[in-house]
């Protein structure tokens, strides 16, 4: 199982061609690397549910980049049912992931928990910036399990439209951050610790950098850092 975070700038390396074709070439390459026996996932997060808008599994667009939206709409790709933090996925375990009931976004029975249990590979493919900070949503699962004091649980309710078009009311618990603190994620310290420990693998793909870490190594390292310093994963504790 492979969770990939990437953006459209990576696809800009391809020769001049329509944007849709560039995005498809990038996704094709990622699918080829994962292989038919693997399950590929990309975030398809849609925050409109937190603003009172319905979440439609088939039609609510991904708001986390052109690549993820292109992947979400490809033939054979399915989407998990979390109305805030859904994933687009394809492969042998896609159906299993889409059956996970919606209860808590980062809870012990969430898709993030399955990533941890199956020790998925978490991959970051970006041109600029700190890759983990830009795509390290898995850290919120660690923070929730650890019980950090800069996040608190909030219930969001609204209309849910399933893949078969059925409409129902849905409530989900989202461990939101405390906006009175500098609580936005800063994973540079985590990235450095993973690199220093040899747990974050890296390579260049053209002019972009790809990094990969297993969910277990990510979880265990982030957990240890929170034990050492409760604000080590947010801007409040940034030291770099």
Can you lay out the helices and strands and say which pair or pack?
Elements (H helix, E strand, L loop, with lengths): L1 E5 L1 H4 L7 H16 L5 E4 L11 E2 L9 H7 L5 E2 L7 E4 L3 H5 L12 H7 L3 E6 L4 H5 L2 H9 L4 E11 L5 E11 L10 H9 L4 E5 L2 E7 H14 L12
Parallel strand pairs: 1-2, 1-6, 3-7
Antiparallel strand pairs: 2-5, 4-5, 6-10, 7-8, 9-10
Helix pairs in contact: 2-3, 7-9
Q: SSE order, as H and E?
A: EHHEEHEEHHEHHEEHEEH
Number of helices: 9
Low-pLDDT residue spans: none
For the terminal residues, how far apart are their CA atoms?
32 Å
The backbone outline, from C-alpha atoms, is globular
Quickly give the structural class: alpha/beta
- The radius of gyration over CA amounts to 17 Å
Helix proportion: 25-40%
Mean pLDDT: 93
The share of residues in extended strands comes to 15-25%
**For the largest beta sheet, what order do the strands appear in spatially?**
4-5-2-1-6-10-9
Major sheet, described briefly? 7 strands, mixed
Q: Tally the beta strands.
A: 10
């Amino acid at each position: 199982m492979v969770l990939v975070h990437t953006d459209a700038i990576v696809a800009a390396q391809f020769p001049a061609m329509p944007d849709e074709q560039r995005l498809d070439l990038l996704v094709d390459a990622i699918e080829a690397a994962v292989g038919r026996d693997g399950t590929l996932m990309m975030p398809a997060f849609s925050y409109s549910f937190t603003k009172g808008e319905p979440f439609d599994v088939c039609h609510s667009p991904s708001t986390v980049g052109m690549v993820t939206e292109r992947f979400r709409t490809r033939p054979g790709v399915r989407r998990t049912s979390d109305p805030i933090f859904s994933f687009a996925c394809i492969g042998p375990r896609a159906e299993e992931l889409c059956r996970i009931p919606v209860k808590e976004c980062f809870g012990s029975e969430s898709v993030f928990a399955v990533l941890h249990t199956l020790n998925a590979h978490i991959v970051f493919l970006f041109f600029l910036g700190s890759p983990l900070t830009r795509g390290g949503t898995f850290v919120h699962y660690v923070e929730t399990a650890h019980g950090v004091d800069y996040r608190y649980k909030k219930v969001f309710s609204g209309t849910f439209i399933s893949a078969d078009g059925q409409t129902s009311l849905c409530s989900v618990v989202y461990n939101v951050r405390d906006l009175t603190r500098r609580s936005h994620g800063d994973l540079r310290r985590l990235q450095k610790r993973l690199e220093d420990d040899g747990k974050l693998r890296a390579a260049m793909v053209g002019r972009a950098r790809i990094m990969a870490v297993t969910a277990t190594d990510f979880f265990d390292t982030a957990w240890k850092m929170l034990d050492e310093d409760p604000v080590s994963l947010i801007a409040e504790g940034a030291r770099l």
